[in-house]
């Protein structure tokens, strides 16, 4: 009888694999599935999309049929193909911007925590000045002056987002910098870069990885908002935010067209947040056990 009771528990444990040595929650598995499907769609878009990104293949707002599963858009372009290429643009840009903002924010934050008082004051005041203005308005000003080319968009959002990364990385690094092994490294005469790379960064990874997921979501939504307002990705490139803007009026006529890109934005954001919540729970549990 005891064997019969235990078998379902073993099956359930087998169905919940581990990641980084920790058992995945159900929501984390759902989040990973959503993210993986979106990444696969983005990477394979040129090969799995039925038509090109800007190919006009029929009449505007044609209904779905076996050739065009989601129908056609306002210019007669295949909506499914636009969704796939939009995933490539939206996710790719968000990932590049998040990586760049983390590189800038972590390097500056760690340097401020380790290098000394004057560099800390200088960098902190610069960040405070940038944070004093709302991010969206700041982006409007920069993009209105410099234009909306992709490189300008990447650098602008990365610099604005790096201020949040700076504050977290600085706080984490300052807690680590006062520990004995870091003080010992300073006494040995180790350089600033060596201390950051070998002593601080490995111990700051868990909170920074969780923050990376959150910042990716914010960047993803920020790009969509800019595109919706006409300052993000420009036509004829497909982008989920600009697609919502182009199709928004059709909701009044009973078309579900604007719901496809809007739903894709919401679904990917939820998926990433599921993963981040699981990682934060693990980090909190680890702190509780160590305490």
Mean pLDDT: 86
Radius of gyration equals 23 Å
Percent range for β-strand residues: under 5%
- Gap between N and C termini: 40 Å
As for the CATH topology, it is MetI-like fold
Uncertain residue segments = 1-14
Helix content: over 70%
Largest sheet: 2 strands, antiparallel
Main attributes of the structure:
MetI-like fold, two-stranded antiparallel ribbon, mainly alpha, disordered N terminus, 11 helices, 291 residues
Question: Can you give a write-up of this model?
Answer:
This protein is mainly α. It has one domain (25-290): MetI-like fold, CATH 1.10.3720.10. The chain has 11 helices and 2 strands; from the N terminus they run αββαααααααααα. The chain has helices at residues 2-15, 26-43, 45-48, 79-114, 117-131, 135-146, 150-177, 180-187, 192-228, 240-247, 259-290, and strands spanning 18-19, 22-23. The chain has a two-stranded antiparallel ribbon. α4 (79-114) packs antiparallel against α9 (192-228). The protein is elongated. It starts with a helix and ends with a helix. Residues 1-14 have low confidence and may be disordered.
In short:
With about 290 residues, the chain is mainly alpha-helical.
């Amino acid at each position: 009888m005891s064997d019969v009771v235990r078998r379902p528990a073993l099956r359930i444990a087998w169905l919940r694999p581990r990641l980084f040595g920790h058992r995945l929650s159900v929501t984390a598995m759902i989040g990973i599935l959503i993210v993986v499907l979106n990444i696969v769609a983005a990477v394979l878009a040129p090969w799995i999309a039925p038509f090109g990104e800007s190919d006009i293949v029929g009449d505007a707002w044609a209904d779905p049929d076996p050739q065009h599963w989601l129908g056609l858009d306002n210019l007669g372009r295949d909506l499914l193909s636009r969704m796939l290429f939009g995933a490539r643009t939206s996710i790719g840009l968000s990932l590049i911007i998040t990586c760049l903002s983390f590189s800038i924010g972590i390097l500056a934050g760690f340097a401020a925590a380790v290098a000394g008082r004057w560099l800390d004051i200088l960098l902190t005041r610069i960040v405070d000045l940038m944070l004093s203005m709302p991010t969206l308005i700041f982006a409007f000003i920069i993009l209105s002056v410099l234009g909306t080319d992709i490189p300008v968009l990447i650098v602008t959002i990365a610099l604005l987002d790096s201020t949040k990364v700076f504050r977290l990385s600085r706080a984490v690094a300052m807690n680590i910098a006062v520990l004995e092994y870091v003080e010992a490294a300073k006494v040995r005469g180790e350089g600033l870069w060596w201390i950051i790379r070998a002593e601080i960064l490995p111990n700051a990874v868990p909170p920074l990885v969780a923050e990376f997921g959150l910042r990716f979501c914010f960047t993803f939504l920020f790009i969509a908002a800019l595109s919706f307002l006409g300052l993000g990705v420009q036509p004829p490139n497909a982008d989920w935010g600009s697609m919502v803007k182009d199709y928004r009026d059709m909701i009044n006529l009973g078309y579900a067209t604007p719901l496809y890109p809007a739903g894709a934005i919401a679904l990917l954001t939820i998926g990433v947040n599921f993963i981040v919540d699981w990682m934060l729970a693990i980090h909190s549990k680890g702190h509780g056990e160590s305490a």
